Amino acid sequence: MVIMQIKNVQYRYHDGTDALCSINLDILKGEFLAILGQNGSGKTTLLKHLNGLLKPTAGEVLLDQKTLTRHSPNEVFQKVGIVFQDPNDQLFAPSVWDDIAFGPMNMGLSGNEISQRVNDALIMVDMAPYAKKPVDALSFGQKKRVCIAGVLAMKPEILVLDEPTCGLDPVGVTSLMTLLKELNQKHGITIIMATNIVDLVPVYMNRLAIMYQGALLRVGSPEDVFSRIDEIRHAYLELPQIAQLMLTLRDEGSISMDSLPLTIGEARNYFIHKLNDKYGGAPRRVSLVK
Ligand SMILES: Nc1ncnc2c1ncn2[C@@H]1O[C@H](COP(=O)(O)OP(=O)(O)O)[C@@H](O)[C@H]1O
Ligand SMILES: [Mg+2]
């Protein structure tokens, strides 16, 4: 089911920069969609159209089949939650609790409902022990989680995140992506995430849209989009590292394959299969040291 439609959206900044040119994209309910593109390709500009922070110069954005401008701003902010790239742009209240409570308070909810929502959101992002902490005393990764909690407390249908892994260490990236996957799969929240890290896409996302110079170059499953290697390179993106390794092995004539493995799991299955074919039975342990 289509929950949001971006129809022929163009956007020109005041200085004349054409940041989006005729974007058409349907957002499907329950999906985890990546918007992948190099810096300056228009990802942030596109995301800001999803909750009306920017209004299209031409075209329209529809939420539940109704143009965004025909929804009340509060309705849009409640349904579509945006997490900005830099948590310091988003957090402003003195304590974690106050920051997360801000959205529900603006919705005019009762004190009990506000407390319930803040506590639930803190648990969802695994930050319950930090409720009383000053925001300034948090690590960068913790700040990101508080930003996400602030949005979750509004019970959004759609969660939009702008390069949320930026600035996190590798463990922080995995734990954030695991959280997002859980919010998507367990809580049914539709997630749209801008990123320029291709390796994350086949592991976590169902679908991706490639942006290049303000246009959508291709939308599809990771298998489909990453098989179009020339397009990926045209957009100044790389293939996932595992896919690149598999292609290198293929081009050297070391292996042959029908479809391109994109993740460690897929490559592992491929090699186990090949080893089984070659040796039969269980795969043999291959020594890395001669
Ligand atoms: N406030 C602004 N004023 C003028 N041009 C802008 C502004 N913000 C972004 N741009 C330009 O719009 C284009 C797309 O930028 P952006 O959406 O931030 O891309 P991305 O998020 O993919 O890095 C770039 O050429 C950028 O320089
Ligand atoms: Mg950006």
Structural write-up:
This protein is an alpha/beta fold and 290 residues long. The protein has twelve helices and ten strands.
Could you give the topology of this structure?
Layout (H helix, E strand, L loop, with lengths): L1 E11 L5 E11 L3 E6 L5 H7 L8 E6 L2 E2 L5 H7 E4 L3 H4 L5 H11 L4 H14 L15 H13 L5 E5 L7 H16 L4 E6 L4 H5 L2 E6 L2 E6 L1 H5 L2 H6 L6 H11 L12 H16 L11
Parallel strand pairs: 3-8, 3-9, 6-7, 7-8
Antiparallel strand pairs: 1-2, 1-4, 4-5, 9-10
Helix pairs in contact: 4-5, 4-6, 5-6
The protein binds adenosine-5'-diphosphate (ADP) and magnesium ion.
The site of magnesium ion has 3 residues, from helix 1.
Short summary:
The protein has two domains: 2-89 and 157-237, Rossmann fold; 240-284, no CATH class. Helices cover 40% and strands 22% of the residues.
Query: Helicity, in percent?
Result: 25-40%
Q: Specify Rg, calculated over alpha carbons.
A: 21 Å
Structural class: alpha/beta
What strand line-up does the widest sheet have?
A: 6-7-8-3-9-10
The proportion of strand residues reads 15-25%
So, CATH architecture of the largest domain?
3-Layer(aba) Sandwich
Largest sheet: 6 strands, mixed
Detail the poorly predicted runs.
none
Query: What's the CATH class label of the largest domain?
Result: Alpha Beta
Task: Give the number of DSSP strands.
Answer: 10
Structurally, how many domains make up the residues? Answer: 2
Rough outline: globular
Q: Which kinds of small molecule does this entry bind, naming each only once? A: adenosine-5'-diphosphate, magnesium ion
> What's the CATH superfamily of the largest domain, by name?
P-loop containing nucleotide triphosphate hydrolases
Number of H- or I-type helical stretches: 12
Q: Topology as H/E string?
A: EEEHEEHEHHHHEHEHEEHHHH
User: Distance N terminus to C terminus?
Assistant: 55 Å
Overall pLDDT metric = 93
CATH topology of the largest domain: Rossmann fold
